[in-house]
Amino acid sequence: xxxxxxxxxxxxxxxxxxxxxxxxxxxxxxxxxxxxxxxxxxxxxxxxxxxxxxxxxxxxxxxxxxxxxxxxxxxxxxxxxxxxxxxxxxxxxxxxxxxxxxxxxxxxxxxxxxxxxxxxxxxxxxxxxxxxxxxxxxxxxxxxxxxxxxxxxxxxxxxxxxxxxxxxxxxxxxxxxxxxxxxxxxxxxxxxxxxxxxxxxxxxxxxxxx
Length: 210
Known about the structure:
Elements: E1 8-14, H1 17-27, H2 30-33, E2 40-44, H3 48-60, E3 67-75, H4 86-102, E4 106-111, H5 125-129, H6 139-145, H7 159-169, H8 176-185, H9 194-207
Parallel strand pairs: 1-2, 1-3, 3-4
Helix pairs in contact: 1-8, 3-4
């Protein structure tokens, strides 16, 4: 290894533990992603979503030469700049990262409105992971009856509130492990969220098998 060769493939900065665990679960399925397994380090920004938006570049500056790539993940909801759309936030973060030395080796993924939107795929694993495997009515029927999920909508309008209500109803504690477990099990093709697609496209561009 030459002095200019990064020691590791990837540094990951997330706004909280649940997003970190979701990515850990996703990257454990590198074969399904059709990539090699990256050698990665993971960090959580102490300033949560607003901190990531403001100064992810400062947090990641020490890793510019030691890591080949960087990926930043945060929610749009709770960022303090909800009037911005996800593309504007991503552009701002990626510009700041490029200026501080990452150039085109870093990507920002802003989940709109928040991570829980990735939970609500049509996978049968979702009910089981949320404690609804044998519940009557089934989870989606219950959410519609309670007003969390419009009949014509593909996902709940407020995904985080829907998840929290579902867990409360079956007295299942909320934990970051739920997000990791779902990421390890749910078919990647079932999640059509634009931020999820950007993340998987970026990982394939950086780490695709030769």
